[in-house]
Fold:
Amino acid sequence: MAVEMEVADGQCRLRPFSCELGLLSRPDGSAAFLQGDTSVLAGLYGPAEAKISKELPDRAALEVLLRPKVGLPGVLERSREQLLRQTCEAVLLGVLHPRTAISLVLQVLSDAGSLLSCCLNAACMALLDAGLPLAALFCGVTYALQPDGAILLDPTARQEQEARAVLTFAIASSDRKVLMATTKGSCSVEEMQQCLAAAQRAASTIFQFYRDSVRRRYSKN
Amino acid sequence: MAAMAMERGTAAEALVGQVVLPGDLLLLPAHYDEDAEGERLRLSAGTAPQGRLLCGPGLRRSGAGLLVTKCGLLRHRPGGGGAYWVDSQQKRYVPVKGDHVIGIVTAKAGDVFRLDVGGSEPASLSYLAFEGATKRNRPNVQVGDLIYGQFVVANKDMEPEMVCIDSSGKSSGMGIIGQDGFLFKVSLGLIRKLLAPKCEIIQELSQLYPFELVLGMNGRIWVKAKTVQQTLIIVNILEACEYMTAEQRKQALAKLSGN
Structure:
């Protein structure tokens, strides 16, 4: 059920995307998301019974676990888990399932750049697959600022290393609002705004890709 | 282009039978009229809606119309005010009042049994909620038994509560499920398909050989045929229905009935 896509966005191009929904049998929702050679597998469990210590009286408790390809999760994974959790919480209608736990496990299969945006996309597809109530969709877009000032959409690991700054945004489908922004390296305010505007344009392409992936899934019945 | 149109909202009728995603806005016919009339107050009775529109699973009311909160196929039922809902492929069950489900007894706690129904918390079932049960005459329920029952209380803030009798005190098919047989899980979408009136799959299977079948809205199916082998054949076919098309299923059944 993989959907291939390659789109020209000015001189910036997204790498070929591919997504498969519901390929794991045990979790309630699962998605494998590929962005070029970067791939992330997401499994979602819930709304399930919550531990008393984690239970929230008014909404579902969301837990995000990011597993690196090798070794144990470290500080970097923890900080990304936090970003992912806050992004998911912004769109998830957790009030409809109070006193429950939702856990999202993201396993990195290969990291070839733009890993955080791939994680965001995989997380959104897993939420969709599990059928949890969402107020909107979100997608992740990564930009790299090259030393010469050019901006590069969806950079590879090598391009990220050479870049002056790497910016990742999470964009919501409702009015293309920004849910999360994180930067590494130095960039001016103008450059950041330029990247943000470009990210909002690229988001339309990704949302269209989401729609096509879901259509493929539902075309079978 | 289609994505941009979605943001402003699309007429709900135009999307019936199509895939909708969370965040899509559906506009209702009454809403067009309001747009046309602008801010003018409407006093005549003629413009009043004919009935109440039902807003089913996966949809929420939002100021302008209906907001989609689940991905799936948009469905519509005319009549009265009409009803819209989203038919989605899910695996996790969320208790709904009136649903018939198969529960597994996990504990006996005084006057109530705790049942695992696949939801976020166990459901409770009173020992008096069986046909003919009195304080003296308790039903014989053991931990691990399967129970087919109906939800009388199911909402997000309360513990779900089940009964095995209808409003007139009759069991009407509910109660403890027999000793043997086979229980397995399928997706909630498949269960809804099987429970639809005149379901082709069930009709085709019933021509194979006689068997007993219990379908729970929580995705659990219990099957019992004359022999273990026959039971497992039914189980395998039902499990495969999730991925097979109608033609593939007919071929598989033809092969079986040939033997």
User: Anything to note?
Assistant: The first strand of chain A starts at residue 8 and ends at 9. Chain A touches chain B at residues 22, 27-29, 46-50, 91, 93, 96-101, 128, 130-137, 172-175, 204, 207-208, 210-211, 214-215, 217-218, 220-221 (CB under 8 Å).
